[in-house]
Structures are given as C-alpha cells and as structure tokens.
Protein: Glutamate--cysteine ligase
Amino acid sequence: MGLLTEGRPLPWPETKALAEHVRRHGIEQFINHYHKLKDRKGDTLKWGDEIEYILVRYDEQQKKARVVLKSQALLEVLNEKEETNPHACKSLWRPEFGAYMIEGTPGKPFEGFLTHFNMLEPNMRYRREEVTELLERNECILSLTNFPRLGCPEFTYPIYLPQPNNPKSITMSKYYPDEATFEGHPRFKTAAKNVRMRRGEKVAIKVKVFKDKNTQFPVEGSPANEPDMVVLDATGLGMGCGCLQVTFQATDMQEARALYDQLAVMCPIMLALTAASPIYRGYLTETDCRWHIISSSVDCRTPEERGLNPQCGNKYYIPKSRCDSISSYLSPKGEKYNDLHLPYHQRDYDRLRQGGVDHLLAQHVAHLFVRDTISLLDEKVHQNDKEETDHFENIQSTNWQTMRFKPPPPNSPIGWRIEFRPCDVQISDFENAAIVCFVILLTRVLLAYDLDMLMPLSRVDENMKTAQKRDACRKGKFWFRKNVLHPKDKQSHIYMNNSSNNSGYEERCGDKMSFDDYELMTMNEIFNGKSNGFPGLIPLIYKFLEPMDIDGNTFGVIDKYLRYMQQRASGKIITGAQWIREQVLQHPEYRQDSIVSERINYDLLKTIQRIQNGKDVEHILRSG
Structure:
C-alpha cells in the first residue's frame, strides 16, 4: 500500500490542520532530492513483482469459506528471517490493508539476465509454500483479487459484525467490520477513517449486478433510483482486493519518464487481459476487474471537488479519485498528448519551477499534491527537508495511480524506478509469472526499437472504461496506435543488462511524428498483430529475442509464457474473471439469481486451491 512508517497517528482535525504544512514541505523535499539525483545515470535493470494474497479458512462441516484474520501473527514469524539474516531471504513479507491479506515479494530484485525468468515462478511458489507451512490444515493462502463474499454476513474468522451506527467505528460500514482491517500498523485504519472524514460521508462504491433469469431487484442496500447496483460502503471493500504489481529500475531519470509514458498506454490493456474479479458482496456483476472498486473506495474528494456543489474558496474540481489512471505524461515526446484537465495549486507548480524542475515533472508533482494527506504521524510532522522525504512520500504513496514514478530513496543504491500497477492478481503462479515476464520484456523492446505507443490520454481513459466491462478481453476494442515503429528504426537490439543510449533524447522526443494515427483494435490484434498492419507486441518480443544466444531451458520458459499470453489475448484461453463466472453459472446450487451462495463460494475457492497446488491445471488450459 506504499510507505509504512511507525509512529502515533494524529487524529483527523490535527491532520487536516497540517495539510498545508505537509504539502509545502513535501514539495521542498522533492526539489532538494531531485537536484541530488537528476543526473544519476548508469543503473542497470533490476525488477521484481509484488503479489497481494488473501488468507482463507474453511469450515469443512458447514461447507463455508471465510477470510481468516491472522496476517499480523504470520508477519511476526515471516519477518524473523529478514531481521536475522536479510541477505539470505528468498522472500519478503509486508502487511496490506486487510487483516486477512499479506504482500509477498522476492527477497532481492531479479536482474537484467534472461536466465532470471527461470527463477520467477519458483520464487512465487516458494512464497506460497512458506506461508502455507504456518497455516492450519483447514486454511490456505490464495492469490485471488477479491474474496467473493467480502462484505456478506459473517465473512470473517473469527466472526465480527459491522457497526454502522457506532460513531466510534472506523468506517461505520453496514458490511465491513473494523476488525477486518489490519491492526498492526496505524496507517490502515487511520487512512480508512480519514477518507470518510475528509469526504464528509461514507464512500459509495457502486457495481452493477449481472442480470440473470431469476435476479431479484432491488438489490439489498441499493439506492432507490439504482435498484440494480451492489453498494459497498467501506474503504476495505476496495483496498481489501489483491493485485499484481511490477517494479523495475531504469538506467536514469529520462529513461524512467519515457517508459512511464509508454507503459501508461498499456495499463487498460493489461487490466482487461488480467481481469479476475467478477463477484462483489456475493453477487455476480457486470464488471470483470477491481479498478473502479478500489478507486471509489479511497475517493476522499469533497462534494465541491467532485463537482456536486458550487466551487467555493480555494477548492478545485478534481476529476478523479486519488486512485485512478494517470492524468499526464512525463516525457517530452508525450507532452502533445496531454489533453486531460490537470488540476494543481498554481503556487506549488510555481515553486517547483523556481526550484529548477522542468514543466512536465513540475505539473506531475503539483498534481499529486492537490491531494491532502490522509495519514500523518506525530513523530513525522517536523523533518529536515534537505535530508528526508517522508512528507513527499506521504502524498506520493497515497496517489494510487495505474503507474507510479519513483525517485531513488535517500542515501540508497536504488535508482529511478517505475511501478506498473493495473493488473488483477491471477489464480496461479504460472499466470502471474507470465504477466511479469511479458511486462519486463516489453520494456526492453520499447527501448530496443524506440517504439512509440503514445496517444492522447483521453483515449487511454476511454480504454480504462472499456477494460472493466464484462468479457472485455474477448469482446472489447481498444484505442491503439496503428504504427508503433519509429520511421528511422535501426532494428537495433539491446540485451537485458545493457543501458539504453539516451544521447539526443530531448531532440528525438521533440520530433514531430507523422504516424500518430490510432484506431480501435481487439486484444488479439494488439498482442498478436494484424495482417498487413500492426505487427503485434508478442511478435516484436520474439523479434527482439531472435538474435540472442539463449540457452534452451531459458527460451523454453520464456516461450511458454509468451505463448500463454498470445492465447489469452486471442480468446483461446479465457480470463480468470470468465472462468470464475463459469464456475458459478455451472454450479448445481446456482439459482440463476446472480447470488454466490456460501456453498458456491466454498466450492469455488476449493477448486482455486487445487489449481494453485498444481492438482488441477484445467484452468490454465481452458479454451474460450
């Protein structure tokens, strides 16, 4: 979930009063840090994944499954290895929003060697096994985007009940008890409460129900004028979803900015391709993935900022939640495609420009800082702006956008990084590894061929809406460039561990492009290509790999992942969301009423557990 610092959280009135303090000092910290590191060059590719898992407990007699609230106890054991011998750890573990969630990463980054793809899936498998050893026999760890009955009665173990009428409740939710939020770090409950306090009301997440033959309306808790909506009213019902993220290090700031822009175009594409969460609060819905749900769950905008009331004072209309798609490109090549309304405080932008930050980066940072802090620790109020960056990271880490541009930490060997954030987590380690492999190889191809996938951000946002529709991977069409190859493409190849040559970066990115037409394409066309047209991303990756001296085992692993991605994009293999739908619709207890009962949920999760344990591979090979 971002920056986790220990300390005493301030109550909302004090946090609110210090919002300008955090904003002012956060910007000063960024300026100081920027000048120390803007000329840093020569870092090599390092990369890693983050998987957010959920913990499940089965009641074998009653055939029920619940999330088990024991992540804090597990972390105390798992983190002992890191504390005693951090250099020997094969995995690292961190808390997540839910008390039933846990985040796992490799113990150290993978590096820029193709052979490291051989290590990825085994490391994911090791993480799962490491946690499983600490669980009881009727418990398991699942890489599942959303627990299907999250928010239903008695969905936790131990059982806790929501307290919507208790003013001391964190969220005052009708569906999500406070105890389901992670207790071991103050940030999570503080942020959940302050989202509600700043917004002036509970969050309102609305998801349209999939209408089946016997679906009854209105849905319980739906608004009078929206009887077909499942309503979720707590931050935990969105931030309690899991995901798959990929972070990688660039050779320098310019390369990081260029890759940030190019991959932003891929965010809705990968969201649709990885869609794996069609069920919310026990209902089949018309969405296949989590993005709108998490976006709404942390939407702390006031009515004025949402455009619901006349603007007053210094309030700005802010079109998006603090968790949403990006709103501006960072590289000079992307500037002409910045066609979205980008609110920021002029004073903040001016200070960044006076501090020597270029226009594109200044407006990006100023836009991040249009948000107030939603969690502030007493011990971190007063900082040394020349040496510390906690105020900057406070705002940066609570802007949960599809991409994150990450400056190097203070006094660290870590370089400029990019975090790719849109993907739903997949059911199996194989699928997660295939997605990570594809993303990393795509970054190499982007640099090797100087590909240009940029288009107006308004089109990217249109794609985000398309990506979240039911079966968008097979049925949707997405805006994409007709030609991504540079007219002066030299067909050069860079190896995984080579730094890119950024000489002439400013001039090249400033060129007028004559091939910036784009059109609606299917997922199959984007990944696999069109006859006499767009070559396809996967064929470009194979072309990049062709001249390399790759051992047979390594090529076999990469080839297996890429062919899987090709088949997912073509529809020959369905998404996790479509597979989950089929499991529900074909269940003997399903009543064609859109409801995922306790027994259906139990059987579904048992099947998923078998797949993850390698005992039932039909999911991976399932033909559409």
Summary: The mean pLDDT is 93.
